[in-house]
Amino acid sequence: MMKKYLIILWVCLFHNAYAQQNNLLISDSLSGKTYEFFSNNIRYEEKDSINERLYAQSWLAKGKREKNFGQMTQSYKALIYLSDNKLQLKYADSMLTAARSTADIELIGSAYMTKGIIQYDHKEHRKALDNYLIADEYISKTDNHYLIYKVKYVIAQVKYHLGFYDEATALFQECVKYFKKKNERAYLNSLHSLGLCYNRIGKYQLCSQINRTGISEGLRFKNLEMQPYFIHSEGVNQYFQHNYTDAIKKLTKILPIVIDNKDFINETTAYFYIGKSYWDQKLHIKALPYLLKIDEAFQKQKYIRPHLREAYEFLIDYYQQQNDKTLELYYVKTLLEVDKLLLQDYKYLTGKIHKEYDTKKLLQRQRNIEQYWTVIICLVMTVMTVLIAILVYRHYKNKRLFKELMNRKPETSKLCVGSASKELDINPDVVATILKKLEKFEHSKKYLEKEINLLKLASLLNTNTKYAYKIIAKYRNKGIIEYITDLKIDHIIELLKSENKYRIYKNKSLADEAGFGSTQNFTRAFKTRTGISPSYFCTELNKSLTADILK
């Protein structure tokens, strides 16, 4: 209780001292300072620094007083870094408003990117990606290549986070190439992220290669900050290659460093893959403490990555085998909470997660069953909506195709030899003769014979197969099979249009009438030629005739 009162007293004294100092310094000491002074004296060494916040607020006041929107934008950026999480989004919105009041596309793009970074830190990943994409539209029009690739990097991070691994891989590859010569830390970060992507898309050897490169490049730069993260990445990579002992060794080695860095995400990831390595070796007792760490972290942070949800499946299975119903149902309930959270931010990944555990049985044993069925109903309704949309689309498409077919006139051929015979390298007289016989072939409907082929057609045209093939290709613009098939189908179409009796024929009878060898070949050819089935065509024909009679 005494500690509580001391904290309250300290807060009150802090605000009083800060207010007095603020009023004094802004009015007397800082009002005449230059923008360069404020920019140079804010070093971003620690958040909630009284002096630096005071400089940033004075910078903002000067910018507002002089209506200098560019300087206002920069001062808001400073306040974002120097403020707590509650104020960051507010300052980000104000920064963006100020930036948009300028004509500086680089500044506007940079403001959108900054807001995206804040949203990413606040776990608003979809919104962050939207702002990164807007930032890219502005920054891509500038000559600031460093900023261009910085946008690529943050977009790639969100794409990786949301499960678009192939797209993220391509962007990180570009960043690695660019930052290698421009910025050592950005280069190492890009290498690390690229390695993670290679792991996610199953290119484990490339992931290992990238991790080795990252470690050696860090040594060359004398920058060891990223070394633990390349080891961490390789530990996860070794798990996927079933090298469980090596995975445990590497991840255990770097855990103290990750914990010391307060890196919550990589800490829980290390726990998960250590636990999973033991679990896959059937060492469930050894795996248990690490899997329990996942739930411990979730309860504290209310944040989890999709791949970590499998830990709950292991815990449910374990306590089910131990016949511990209390803990079994506790982890079922928590898994539902996890899935609900993931569904909000990982819609893409949620559909891809392989859920080996059959939650349906356990859902029936606790109060949240309605939530499960709500998701199912939504999915069913979505599928039904899509199916209805497809059926409606097909309906109107078929109506349109039927109308076009009714208005289609039978194809007519013209005998026009001209210079085309020279292209065929055939005597013009021969071409003319063959074309006349071809027209006779069409008028006499010889094409209705079954099993008509190039050899039979050439014989009917009193020529060889080479000439027959060339002339039909040139003057009918079709291959032999297509030419014969289209003649058969067009014949049936005209019969159906003109003679009622054929409309009651089954497809088999229509196929025989057209000279097809099988009903299947006929229906396929009809659909290819018209876009609709013969049954649909007959039905619509009968409807149209009925409508005409009623008129």
TrEMBL record:
<feature type="transmembrane region" description="Helical">
    <location>
        <begin position="372"/>
        <end position="393"/>
    </location>
</feature>
<protein>
    <submittedName>
        <fullName>Helix-turn-helix domain-containing protein</fullName>
    </submittedName>
</protein>
<keyword id="KW-1133">Transmembrane helix</keyword>
<dbReference type="Pfam" id="PF12833">
    <property type="entry name" value="HTH_18"/>
</dbReference>
<keyword id="KW-0812">Transmembrane</keyword>
<feature type="domain" description="HTH araC/xylS-type">
    <location>
        <begin position="448"/>
        <end position="540"/>
    </location>
</feature>
<keyword id="KW-0732">Signal</keyword>
<keyword id="KW-0472">Membrane</keyword>
<dbReference type="InterPro" id="IPR018060">
    <property type="entry name" value="HTH_AraC"/>
</dbReference>
<dbReference type="InterPro" id="IPR011990">
    <property type="entry name" value="TPR-like_helical_dom_sf"/>
</dbReference>
<feature type="signal peptide">
    <location>
        <begin position="1"/>
        <end position="19"/>
    </location>
</feature>
